[in-house]
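re: ur msg from earlier - yeah i can do the 6-O-phosphono-beta-D-glucopyranose complex, just paste it... oh wait u already did. ok heres what im feeding in:
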Amino acid sequence: MVSRIIPVETFDLVVFGGTGDLAKRKILPALFKRFCFGQVPDGSKVVGAARGELSTLDYRSLVAQALREYGGEMAQDSEKVSAFCEHVDYVAVDARGESGWTELADVLSPDVVRAFYFSVGPGVYSDLAQGLQRHGLVADDTRIVVEKPFGHDLETAQALNRELAQFFNESQIYRIDHYLGKETVQNLMAVRFGNMLFEPLWNAQYIDHIQITVAETVGVAGRGGYYEKSGAMRDMVQNHLMQLLCLIAMEPPAQFEPDAVRDEKLKVIRALDSVQPHHIVRGQYTAADGEMSYREDVDNPRSKTESFVALKCLVNNWRWAGTPFYLRTGKRLSARDSEITVVFKDTPHSIFGPEAGQHRNELSIQLQPNEGITLNVTIKEPGPGGMRLINVPLDMSFAEALGPKLEGTSDAYERLIMDVIRGNQTLFMRDDEVEAAWAWTDPIIQGWEARGDVPKPYDAFGNGPDDADVMMRRDGREWRGLDK
Ligand code: BG6
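and the outut:
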């Protein structure tokens, strides 16, 4: 049985930066896949907009090429690609000038859902917002989609929010964090709030600590210019890891509804304690296996930018007081492995005596790859010799458990773009959320800058700097292995 496809209204989606990398790799393939599943209704248009003078036919060839490259198996069917391209148009628009706006207005239909995807650098957001207003392209329910990074720090994020607020209501602004669109990330909410089993135990009384890891094997080659100014803290922790932390730590919202969910996430960010310098480790990968070091990748032999961060943070509220959250992310690590592990406390008393051994329950939610959930449960070691305890996994791989039901499910961009068309902001970040996340991140980064902190080198394709393990050992804990 293929998953249920919910119809959407006819729409016009304009992609500013329509010839750029994000459009080619993510946005257009996502739209194509939704088209294949019947979610680009007749009369809908995908309009590429960029500076270059291209005919619509040229742009359609660019789209077809991008789909062949990044669109997966379905995009190898040229009939499907051509049928999708019938929905595609192109207009050359000068974001900072006057040319192209009237032509853009002419292409759009008056009575359909209208969305503008700003797949451009944040420096152009304001010009685009003004251009759209000036040329009468914005109706009350017109939406804009903006990408991360949303600002570089609190000040720039506030400025960006203020600029956009001059032209759009908050209900029209969709700030993407693609982690929120991942199937398994949404599953965090289903697991927590759809089961009676976990929620009563979901607090400091029963949980020893929580680990959130997003490990990647890729380096930063090709994105050095951006990454040098960003580093892992701005690139991953301020947004993706923060969102995961929020979903794990938040109180149950009254409804699965945009502001109810975002209010609860915001409360978590605001309850975060400031991170002590000895509770954070930064790292930078070295060269290995014919791969370049971070410094070579970014062409800066003295770079102090981190490609790895591990930190311990505390959520200062009734639910979590005393239960640390350990966050870790890095590039060029030994495995691509994103997971959240909830480590429960020891039983208060062992009736079997010390020789039987003690094991902790661990609930591990594997986000990618191999999505699934594992619950480690303590049982008796089989065989004679008295009562000895071992931990065994109750293992659920989603691929095995759900099989064909996974067919047709959307990837993050597909789901988020369809949510924009449906007008559902639940999985998008609100202005105050983004600002609160920066307000927590800024002092950490400022501390590094003030101290002239240099990240610790770590072996490429290893587990990050030793100091990250030392930080855990000081607390009598250890990181889950990356190479399970
Ligand atoms: C992006 C970061 O937001 O997320 C990248 O800018 C990172 O540096 C990427 O590689 C990771 O996303 P995913 O979906 O591959 O886990």
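cool cool. Residues 24 and 66 are 5 Å apart (CA to CA). ping me if u need the other ligands too
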